[in-house]
Amino acid sequence: MADDLVRVAETLVPEILSNLDRIDAECQLPPELSEHMADHRLFCLYAPKALGGPELDPLTAFRVTEIISRADGSAGWCVFNGSAITAAVARLAPQAVKEIFGDPPNLLGSGSARPEGTATITEGGYIINGRWNYLSGIDHSTALFLNCRLLNHDGSPVLNEDGSPATRVAVVPVAAGAVLNTWTTLGMRGTASNDCEFTDVFVPAHHSYMRGDPSHHPGPLYNPAQTSILISWTLAAGNALGMARGAMNAFEELATGSGTTDSRMLLRDRTYVQIAYGECEATLDAARTHVLDAVGSMWDAQVDGKPDLMDRAVRARLAITHAIRRSVEVVDQLFNVAGTNAIHRSVGLERFFRDLHVSGQHISGLPANYEYGGQVLMGAQTRASLYT
Fold first, then answer.
1. Distance CA 367, CA 373 (A)
2. What is the domain partition of the chain in residue ranges?
3. pLDDT band at 388 (very low <50, low <70, confident <90, very high)
């Protein structure tokens, strides 16, 4: 299954490339493309085998995401986001998954970890109200995994033992809400990361879970739950590195076939371009190797039950953020040395420039992750958000 999906990703590249204009113009993946990707389970790479999912290890899922992202950042992002979100079906009882997604389950989901709405306790479940944003891939999703502020029947907040507000994730059919077309952005236009609003929607208790709940499925991909974010974010790094490689490919094609507006000399024959390209190659290769090494080390510890798992997780988190930040820097450097050529859609570089500058704003690529790593490594009190 693992090698098969890597090959599937490669075979889908021509179809993705033929749809680039539609992806941007329609602000979503064309339905026939998303259907093909869904047929091959590319939006649920981490879903349990017992539910019909591929249950890929993170390094193989990284390769799949990277290949798709070299062709188009939005398509790769939907692979990352869908796989990260639907991995949470492991926290639901199998019968609940079948009730939500069908039997056999067709695992197409999006969601939000930000508790922007509420779940009010009622008999047999919860009443969901609120509006959630950045729901990538909602256009081809069946259900949304929505983190909610948990309220008592009287509207008062439920509190955790430490006094903080409690939250609960409710899995809600997309059709039960109103999708709001809000996704007008610089880049990543094809992710269809729109909003959805829900009013007094009942969700059965067994269609919900607490973040960090134990898995209903064995295996290191879901146990322990503490590494689930980093296993998900590994695909964010694959998305960024794939786009950066796509930018390198676009630049190489430009540099070996074109000059600039004031000189016919090929870009590849100019010293400053050679230096920049070589530096970008070294930067990109080093960042990718760092991710594979750090995530691979974390995964080995998770598989073998090693006691230093969380120490390795800190380094994996740093490697993921580093890869995303370096990918943005690479496309910036290429864009600058390409000159006026870079602004033309026909060149392809500007698309990766736009998409990387949007994806780089995701929490997986923010400096707070460096802060957290520094706090842990120096034994300081941790204050940076864990996004839990």
1. 10
2. 2-90, 108-209, 225-377
3. very low
- pTM, rounded to two decimals: 0.96
Q: What is the pLDDT of residues 242-295, one digit of tens each?
A: 999 999 999 999 999 876 656 778 999 999 999 999 999 999 999 999 999 999
Check residue 156 and report its DSSP letter: P
The domain defined by 2-90 folds into Butyryl-Coa Dehydrogenase, subunit A; domain 1 (1.10.540)
Percent helix / strand / coil, the chain, rounded to 5: 55, 15, 30
Q: Which is higher by pLDDT, 121 or 259?
A: 121
CB proximity list for 299: less than 8 A, separation 6 or greater: 57, 58, 59, 220
When the candidates are 3.90.228.20, 3.40.50.10540, 2.40.10.330, 2.40.110.10, the CATH number that belongs to 108-209 is: 2.40.110.10
The answer for 148, left when phi > 0, alpha when psi is -120 to 50, beta otherwise, is: beta
Closest CA to 208 of 179, 240, 169, 237: 169
